[in-house]
Structure formats: C-alpha cells, structure tokens
Design a protein that fits this description.
homodimer, 538 residues, alpha/beta, GMP Synthetase, Chain A, domain 3, nine-stranded mixed β-sheet, 18 helices, 25 strands
C-alpha cells in the first residue's frame, strides 16, 4: 500500500526542511560579513518561493540565475524548486550573444541577475527583442553598496513575504520531475541543455556525501562554480549534512587560504585550474591549514607534481570523473589503503585513473560503441565510456532526438574514449572526437599533453590532430610557458621523444595561449582549426 | 525520458554488486576461522540465488531463515532478493507453536534452518501437518562438525551452481516490491508481519550509514540480531560501504571484547541489554579497545550510569528510536557539539531523548491521535508519536485492515506516547497501552522504571498499572535485584518517594524475574495480568 505515510517523492527540498530542525542554529552560509543559520536559510528560501509563486511562477516553469557563487545563487537552489519551478544557473563567462541563445532555448519566466553581469543580460535582452523572443522578467541582485535600484530587487522579494505563513511549499508530483537545467560546457559543440530530476539530485547528493566521506556539519568552500552541475550537486548535499557553505564571489589563492584558515574548511572541490592555483601560490600566498582539507577534483587527472605539493600542504585529493549528463562526478578513483605504501609516481599513476562508479551510479563500462560489447578489461583495449544509473540525466531539454541518440543501446554514451583495467577501474584516454588516428594508430591526446605538461617550463598544453597526407593525422601541440621560462620547439620534441613512442611525438609545436570554454576547458575544436590552418600555410 | 540508462529501481542488490568491484579483495565477513572477501560473498550469493531459482523459487515467493547471526543468515539477505524472493528471518527464541503460527502466516516455500534449531522447526512442522498447513521445504545449515546430514544442506546448494555463469540476477520490477518480512517483537500482542520494500531498504541503509557517520570500510560487530529489522538494515548498509561483518553465534561480553580487540571493530549496535552486558563485564572480562567504537542503541534510553561507564571504556553511544514498522531506527538523538560541555547528568538527560528523524525519514511528529493536530512543542504535552516517510513499512503482510488502521490519517501511528521539545526533539514517554491513568493523571511507566533502575541494588524493573477502585489504576513495580544485593519493598518505595511526585510512586512492589519477549523486551501485558491477579488476592 503506497500512501503519504510511506511514500514521499525524493527531493532535496527534504534536506533543507530537516536541517531547519536538526541544524537550526548552526551556520548555513558565510559570505564576507554575512552569516546565516539553517533556520534562516530555510525561512529565506520559503519566502522567496512564496514571492515567486505570487509572480505567477508555477509547476514546470523555468527560473534562471546569472550570478557567481554568492548566497543568492545558493538560496535559489532550494527556493526555485520549492515554488515547483526548474532552476537554470547561467554561466557568467558567456557573452550576450551566447546568453541570448541559451535564454531562448530554456525560456525562463524570470531571470535573477547579479549587478556585475547586468550589462551581459541587457545585451542578451536586446538581441532577443530584435528577434522577437519573449523576454523573462529580470530581478536584480544588486550591489550591496548601491542603495537605489530601479529593477525589482532580490531583497524586496524576500521582504514582501515576511509574514506569509500560509505559503505551502510546492513538492514534485513525481520524483522524476525536473529540478534544474544545466548547460554543458561546450567543449565539442554549443552548450547542450541537460535536465536533472528531483530523484537524481537527491540520490547524487547522498552519493557525493559518501564518496567524500563527509561527516555531518562539514565546512564546504565553494571553489566549484555552482553553474557546474549545481556545484556537482554539493549545493544540495551540504544542506543534507547541515554543513556551512563558504561563498566566494571570485576564487583566488588568497581567498582559498583565508577561507580555509578562518572558517576551518573541511571540504572543497575544483578543476585542475583550482589545484594549480593552490600549488602555484608560493610561500607568500599560503597560510597554514587548521586541519586537513578533502579536495575532490575532476575534469582532468591531477598532475603528480601538483598532487605531491598539495598533499604536503594538507590537501587530500580525490579524483572523480563525470559529465554534466551525470550530475557531475559519476566515478571516483576509490583509494585502496594498501596503495599508500607505493612510491609517489606509482600512486600518481593510480590516482590518474577515473576509477569506479559511486554508490548512486549503477554501472560504468567501456564498450564498443557499435556492438555494445564490453572491451577487454586489460587496461589497453579502448572503447567508449558509458554510464547507466539513477544519476544519469533525464535527457536534453526539449530535444527528444538528441536524448535518444545519447541513450542509444540503453546506456548513456559519454563520447569519452577509455580503457578498463582488470580491477574494474576505468581510465579515460580522450574525447572520442579528439583521438588522433596516425598511420592507423590511436593516439590519446591526453597522454601526450601529460608528458608535455611534465616539462618544467610548461604552464599548459593542448594537443590535437593535424591533417597529414601520408599518415592521416599527426600530433600538433599548442602550449603556453610559465612566466620567466623559455623552451624551443626542438627542446619540447626531444623531451617527448625520450618519453613517448615515436609516432606519438608532436610533429608541430606552437607557442600561444590556449582558447578556453566558459568552464575553463581547452577548446580543442578551435585548436584543430588552427592546426589545419598551419597545414595550409606550409 | 525514463529508460534503462537513467532509471534503475533502487535495491540493496546494487550495493553488493558494486562492492564486488570496489572492495573486491577486502574482507566482507569474519566468523571464527572463516573469512570471505566481497568478491566471494557476491559469488556465493549469486550461486545461492541460482540454486533457489532452480528449486522453483520465483518472484514474490517467501524464503525463511531460522538461524542466529551466522554467515548464512547474512548471505540470505542478498541471495533471496537476488532470486526475486522475499526474505523472512525468524526469531530463534520462539517455541514450535509460535513458529508454526508464523510459518502459516507467511507461507514460505523454503526455510533454511540452523542445526541448533532443527528441533523447533520439526516441532513446528508437526503442528502444521496436524492442521494440514502446507510445509515449506527445509534446507539445513548443518553443524560444521557433523559430516553427514540427510537434509539438503546449504553448502551443497552453493556447490551445485558453481559453474552457473548464465544465471541472471532477478531484480525488482518496481522498487516498491517487497524485499523482506519482519515480525514485530510482540510487546503488546502476537507478532505482526511487516513488509519492507527494496526502495525502503536502500534508502534506510544509506540513512543508517549517515546517522552513524560511518566511513567506507567499517568493521561492524553483529550484536544486533539480524532478525530485528534485518539488523536495523545494517545487513545491507555494511555491503554498501564495503565493510567487514564480524558474526557471533552467541553474544557474550567476552565475544564482544575479543571481537573488538582482534578485528578492530568500529561500529556495533544493541538494545540496552547489550550495553548492560558490556558495562557489567567487570575488569576481568574487559580488554583494552584498539580504537573508539560507535554504538547505536535503541529500545530504551541508555541509563546515565551505563553511558558514563561505556564512554570511559571507549564506546560512543548514539541513541536511536524506531519500530519494526520503521525499518528499525526512525529517529536519532542527533548530538549537538555544544552539549559536550554539559555535566554528565544533563548530557544523559539530553541523550535520553529519542531525537529527530534521520535523513531518510520525512517527518516525525507528536500528535493528538483523534484530531491529528500536533501537540504543543513544550516537552510536556503528550500525544502519539507518528512517522511519515520512505522508510516506513509498505504495510502488514496480507493484512489490509491492520495496514489501513496503522496509516489512518496519512501517518504511521506508532502507539507510542511522547512529547516534543521546543527544539524539535521528541521524547517517548510510554507505549500508549502502557500509560497508567491514576486519579486522572497520566503516569509514564518508563519514567518510574528509570527511577527504580537507578537504585544501586536493582538489575531491572517493569512498572504497570494495577486496577484500583478509587483511582482507576495505581503503579505496580516488578523488579529483579542484582546478584548479591538486597532491598525491601519499603526501601524501594521510599527511594521513589524522594525522586517522584507522590502519585507516581508504586503502591505495590514485587520481586521476581521479568517475563520477556523473543527480542528481550519486558512483556508488559503479562505483568499487567499478574498485577491484576495480585488485586484479586488482596
């Protein structure tokens, strides 16, 4: 018998409601001088949800937010679902043209805009007006130092519902109803709009607590942008554990060290750029840590040099892997205690693997994308990395065709190319689109990049295939050197020759800044175009 | 779009399948000289499931197990669901007549019977035969020292499926399908048969990991009988975390201390009888602990004396509360860090509260059972404790009427009487049926028992109402003294008078052993009958 006594649709809203009781007077959020308790955060989210409903927001509407990791962005993770609506966080790195395209796609009824990004929003609105696309209502998150604002501001919304005790939080009818939309970073194409469900968000939150061994009342530093998979679902997970969210408008090495020292941060996350920021801070930029800090990283394997530097400083790195379509991390390089005894290099090699599925993900496999057979579990045979489980997206928003394509064969096809080791751990070798096929051999660009990156003068590197009449393609490296360092093309090639089989060594080396996506990933398709252009010149 | 890529019915089977990869070579179970790894446990459960299917077990059939906390009982927690069937663990403390009644109720197709309990099973079968009730097939779990057995034995089942690579694990069609049947302890009536679902078991397992702050790879000592709510769902939770299950056929103080010392136990649980066993072990029975041990207790608030003794020894006690109908613990006395600074007595008072709902339980409330209004949150107003959430039972097996009654008003009615404090923590005062109404005043028998128990000579105490012509009822205490201690009726009454309001002091004091249910709880209904008989004599 299924009834209200024994069946409640899973939703992260339950986390906040429970924390308002269990962790009532504990600090929920810190941002500069601002402090809230869980009771206050719950109350503010309720009020905001009430104000949204008064403005006509109803079940299934989209509400967008263009803002960095500030308290308002955090609160909208609960307030929007509590109004029955779908949250869409927008990337502050986009320009007005891209913003207009994304807004046209998801058609939010309301968009919250941080004052720093008002120009981008207005620019997007202008473009949309010209194309006669209906505009969302704009609600400003104002500069706290600016006392007057002509647009409805965030705080006035909160104020108007102050005594609204009657408001009933809207809960999902079905736990598979959407809770948020997340755009992919657009490494290989324009951003795709991914739908998350209440069920997936709930289950992924619990998994992410368990995979980081997070106890109750953690202190979480927001170095992962909330726009990335809702901060890898930590926005909800921290509420579940009654933790403290430490927010930063801009992430800097100083901001990180100060936050860790002042608030006794226990957990944080970040792409390799964040790790580099910490390890390159230099003695003057560092502060001693009050305790060890668990850091989850993803996007690329952490480099051994960075790993050892950070471990020494007191950061414990866990390597995770996933995509926007898997709510952020879908696998984790689960650490086996006996590995602690291995030398640094062996440890780094093991930690570079993407690992095994977390508790909420049913299965990860490496398969032949045509036959759907698993490849040999020998760490050599390559195939496409595929996922299956409750923490895989519902689909692409209003795009049944792309959704069907992604789920062809009953698995989510990542487009990532990898291997599986005999122990069941996977290692991603490349995006399938990035793999270089040279003289019939597959070359992982990630492998070549790792070798180049290990050169002491190199700050970052991107490798792509360059068309070649004889071999089909040959490796072409783009790289940026560290400030005050120098290296020649020949030096880089010699360095690679000593460490890689001949066919994997770049035939072309170009020194220049790498083009990046809004989430900080290298735009390989832009590099490929450049590599092709080089050929045309030769 | 819901498909196999993004929707998998929640089931604890997933925990075992993942642990067979992630924790493959780690010890899953220890029992005397026996050791298994997670890979082996997974393989054994698969084989056993295959053997069950060959014997005609199919979706929805019941498979029972009459055995203590031995490896076989643990394995059946996975093997039976992996055959699509429903597990029913039977209490080894029942006699043949009760066993026959329970078997007739749940009608298992197969019953696994430990050699020590074969006589009880045969006795039950005889009774059932006489009543023409169909008998289940019996599979013996033999004495390892007895080489010949005429009944199909557990190990031969395992052996016959050794090379059965084709067997496909049966998974629930719907996550709300039943996974197990658990009988209530029968404190107030004959045992009721409670249905657990795959979904509830999955969610409660995750919650129980989080509420005990259990990291991955814990070492769990089985002092909670697996027959109690499938060991408070820890049977599944330990698989989720890749922990080590330390099994004991009989729980003794020596067994506990030896296990903790030899296997570095990190977690265990138990009713107050287990805590008493530890705290009464005496210096000779103790061994130094290799690390602190987290102990979850439930059934009754831990006594301050026991608490302080155990804390000193290295056991950290968490007080939880629940019923068979809530998969074991439904609330936990979540500890607030600032309480650490309070004196022992204040801490004990706080820890005696049953607390707040765990993460998997949606709501707990104290309500007027007629109006369904919440009582005042003042720690004084009494009402019925009620639950609502995904970790409330599906219902009573094949008993729609009792199920409807239990869920009347959309909440699960516990039949427990309690209060809610301003901070949202509940405290259970009594079973509603046990409350004594004397001269119009409600008397909590638990409160009176706690006072009597604090007397240094008292080993245990049970208080019930005794009919009284003037007052309706008066408190009547039954108690057992510690060996080598003495006390008179008058001494006990004086002791109570100094600590309780006059109307709560027992008017009658009886020295005798307390009648117990199969789960070790005092049979209050038996005491009430005795108390009534006293009146008839007077």
């Amino acid at each position: 018998m299924k009834c209200s006594a024994n069946y409640v649709p899973l939703t992260p809203i339950s986390f906040l409601e429970r924390s308002a009781i269990v962790y009532k007077d504990r600090i929920s959020l810190v941002y500069g001088d601002i402090n809230f308790t869980w009771k206050q955060t719950h109350e503010r989210c309720r009020r905001l949800a009430s104000a949204l409903c008064r403005r006509g927001i109803s079940r299934g509407d989209v509400v967008a937010c263009l803002a960095p990791n500030i308290p308002e962005t955090y609160e909208l993770h609960f307030a929007v679902p509590m109004a029955g609506a779908i949250l869409s966080i927008l990337n502050t790195h986009h320009d007005s043209a891209m913003m207009a395209a994304l807004l046209a796609r998801s058609q939010p009824k309301i968009v919250f805009v941080d004052y720093q990004f008002l120009d981008i929003a207005n620019g997007a609105f202008k473009i949309m007006s010209e194309k006669a696309i209906p505009l969302p209502r704009l609600i400003l998150i104002p500069d706290p130092h600016d006392s007057v604002s002509s647009v409805t501001a965030y705080d006035s919304l909160l104020a108007e519902s102050e005594n609204d005790d009657e408001f009933a939080v809207v809960r999902p009818d079905d736990e598979c109803d959407p809770i948020s939309l997340c755009y992919t970073s657009g490494t290989t194409s324009t951003p795709k709009c991914v739908v998350y469900s209440h069920r997936g968000a709930y289950l992924n939150s619990l998994s992410s607590i368990l995979l980081t061994e997070m106890k109750s009342m953690p202190v979480y530093l927001w170095t992962v942008p909330m726009v990335h998979c809702n901060g890898w679902c930590q926005a909800w997970a921290i509420a579940a554990q009654g933790g403290t969210n430490v927010c930063l408008r801009n992430v800097t090495a100083k901001g990180i060290f100060d936050s860790v020292a002042n608030h006794r941060v226990t957990h944080m996350g970040g792409a390799p750029t964040i790790l580099n920021m910490i390890s390159n801070a230099g003695a003057s930029g560092r502060r001693p840590l009050p305790g060890r800090v668990a850091v989850m990283t993803g996007g690329a394997p952490p480099h051994p040099r960075v790993l050892s530097e950070m471990e020494e400083q007191g950061f414990d790195i866990t390597h995770a892997y996933g995509l926007t379509e898997t709510y952020g991390p879908g696998t984790i390089c689960a650490w086996q205690p006996e590995w602690d005894a291995l030398p640094l290099e062996a440890r780094a090699k093991l930690r570079a693997r993407q690992g095994v599925q977390h508790l909420g993900m049913e299965e990860v496999d490496v398969k032949d994308p045509v036959t759907m057979q698993s490849v040999a579990r020998d760490g050599k045979a390559m195939g496409e990395v595929m996922f299956r489980g409750n923490t895989v997206m519902s689909g692409y928003y209003n795009d049944a065709k792309a959704t069907e394509e992604a789920f062809r064969g009953g698995w989510f096809r990542t487009g990532d190319w990898g291997v599986m080791y005999p122990d069941g751990y996977i290692e991603v070798k490349d995006r399938s689109i990035d793999i270089i096929v040279s003289g019939g051999e597959n070359i992982s660009t990630i492998e070549v990049e790792a070798v180049i990156f290990s050169h002491p003068a190199v700050f970052e590197a991107g490798v792509v295939g360059r068309p070649d009449e004889d071999l089909g393609e040959t490796p072409c490296a783009f790289l940026k050197l560290k400030e005050g360092h120098a290296a020649t093309e020949e030096e880089i090639m010699t360095y690679c020759r000593e460490r890689l089989p001949h066919y994997k060594v770049p035939r072309t080396v170009v020194f220049e800044d790498l083009p990046k996506t809004s989430t900080g990933k290298t735009q390989k398709y832009a590099l490929r175009a450049k590599a092709k252009a080089i050929k045309d010149l030769v």
